[in-house]
């Protein structure tokens, strides 16, 4: 029995270290890129540097800059927020970080939606639809996570928080899918305008399959395991 719990603790520690290494090496560079891009686009003129800011559309472009800054902040905060030891030890910090994630999550979603509604994405209507559904789901998960916590329904709160965390990481996963696909195929079925068959699938595949996996996990997990998350 004691041996079992020691090996479980060791496994949890190894998983936590592996998670921290992956986050530090693979996710943090994306966060820094998004924050720097968002800041530079908000404070300077990137019209000659990026098609995203070449449209002379101040509302759309400001929305996009703010969404990048908010997106960078929540991508950094979300892994810390779901770590059970931090949550148990500093519940007040968990509540305040949670409020911040929900607020900035709504800014990221709304900023992206404003850009889609006023300028449209590079990939046209299919990409507009994929990203708009993504933004709406992220906004819904943020609102549900906080409203369930305020209602004292903590099991439902944890379920929505998990969906929100997966959606937030979706933006990073979108880039990971491209990096892997280009490394393996050299960019088959993909083009710069993001209108190839691979691109058409990708604009939904960076979040929908992961949401399905979360639902499968939530249905299979014992109440105790689901509580850990
Ligand atoms: C969750 C964190 C998020 C981060 C860190 C993030 C980051 C970024 C970055 C850095 C770009 C610039 C393009 C690039 O360099 O690839 C971008 C573009 C974009 N993002 Fe986000 N984003 C996030 C969430 C969202 C959400 C929720 C939406 C949905 C409304 C959204 C919609 C868009 C759109 C429409 C573009 C422009 C696509 C194009 O036409 O190229 N993003 N995002």
Automatic annotation (TrEMBL):
InterPro entries in the cross-refs: DUF2306_membrane
Record field: transmembrane: 12-36, 64-84, 96-117, 129-148, 160-181, 201-218
Transmembrane helix in keyword set: yes
One family name in Pfam for this protein: DUF2306
Keyword annotations from UniProtKB, A to Z: Membrane, Transmembrane, Transmembrane helix
Tree of life domain: Bacteria
Signal sequence region: none
Protein name as catalogued: Putative membrane protein DUF2306
Source organism (scientific name): Palleronia aestuarii
Taxonomic path: Bacteria, Pseudomonadati, Pseudomonadota, Alphaproteobacteria, Rhodobacterales
């Amino acid at each position: 029995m004691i041996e079992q719990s020691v090996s479980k603790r060791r496994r949890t520690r190894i998983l936590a270290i592996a998670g921290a290494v992956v986050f530090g090496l693979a996710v943090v560079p994306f966060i820094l890129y998004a924050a720097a891009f968002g800041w530079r686009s908000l404070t300077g003129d990137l019209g000659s540097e990026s098609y995203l800011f070449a449209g002379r559309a101040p509302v759309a472009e400001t929305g996009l800059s703010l969404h990048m800054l908010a997106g960078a902040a929540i991508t950094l905060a979300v892994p810390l927020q779901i770590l059970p030891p931090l949550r148990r030890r500093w519940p007040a910090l968990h509540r305040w970080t949670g409020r911040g994630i929900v607020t900035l999550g709504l800014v990221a979603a709304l900023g992206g939606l404003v850009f889609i509604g006023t300028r449209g994405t590079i990939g046209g209507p299919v990409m507009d639809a994929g990203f708009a559904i993504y933004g709406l789901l992220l906004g819904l998960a943020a609102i549900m996570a906080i409203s369930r916590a305020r209602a004292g329904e903590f099991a439902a709160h944890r379920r929505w928080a998990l969906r929100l965390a997966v959606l937030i990481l979706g933006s990073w996963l979108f880039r990971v899918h491209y990096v892997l696909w280009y490394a393996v195929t050299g960019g088959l079925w993909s083009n710069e305008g993001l209108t190839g068959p691979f691109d058409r699938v990708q604009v939904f595949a960076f979040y929908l399959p992961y949401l399905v996996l979360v639902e499968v996990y939530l249905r299979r997990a014992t109440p105790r395991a689901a509580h850990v998350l």
